[in-house]
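Training component of the fellowship. As part of building independent skills, the fellow (R.M.) carried out the full modelling exercise for a liganded target. The chosen ligand was phosphoric acid mono(formamide)ester. The inputs are recorded below so that the supervisory panel can assess the work.
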Amino acid sequence: MPVNRPTPLQIDRTGKLCHLITLDGLTRTTVESILDRARFHRHQEWTQVSSRPVATALLFCEPSTRTRASFELAAWRLGYHVTNLVPDHSSLAKSETLSETAATLEAMGFSFLVLRHSNPLSAMTLINPLDRPLHCISGGTGQLSHPSQGLLDLFTVCEHFSDLDALTVAIIGDIRHSRVARSTFTALRLFGVQDIRLCTPPGLEPDPGDFPETKLYPLEGALRGVRLVIALRLQRERMADTLQPDTSRYRKNYGLTLERLKLCDPHVRIMHPGPVMPDEELAGELIDSPYSLVREQVRNGVPIRMAIFETLAG
Ligand code: CP
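Fellow's submitted model of the complex:
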């Protein structure tokens, strides 16, 4: 299924970000202010909560560990109340629409709805009118976007690389189905990263136009001299439209190993949005190696999500 990239109206006429569905259309100034706020939060001791009565609902219609837990922890650290809605035990299971669910939460006084959903248009239906009191945040929207992951990836990159104009990045894996690849690509481009090489097995290529001004590389070409490798999981749950790759062949042809890292810059760093399948896209020994920023990405998810809540709340 081709990925539709509608740009939602998530920014009002004054430039204020009201919802966060994709990173498309955000200015560098807006993103920089989120990163600055995340830096502030990363160095805080979180022993006190504010007394502001802000309520946040988490509605994850697809599985998640990192995104859901870190949005919950971020909300808790800001002193917000959190309600976890379980789709099968919510009125969605009785055919209530997402729009009605959002309107219901808004009527109760919720300020945020964090939504993960397989339908690329799901979150778009919730952000009209733009100035509604309920701010909608994508926790992962189909293959379209995962903006909080894109921002935490950018945050992590900024902590480790000073000259983003000169940074070389290889994104390796199931690019066709990766909303992370799309959001992280958008964020890196906004901050000046030019040399982004895509490497994916036949059949998992993105649609033309999804990654402007990029080329597909064979694995060796993608890795040669590169400073940052972003490895991606095979998203088998989204592969109804493509043939399921054979695991051992994928590991042999595309798996990132210590041996293959020798093609890269000696100071190469590895990122992965998780969940990692050890010894499939990434050798198990690399996950906690000195090359790896995987745990740091997860850690950075909390301050970034705190900064997103604050930015939308204004
Ligand atoms: N990176 C990411 O979205 O992980 P989860 O599916 O565990 O939230």
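The panel noted the following from the submitted structure. Residues 225 and 266 are 8 Å apart (CA to CA). The first helix runs from residue 28 to 42.
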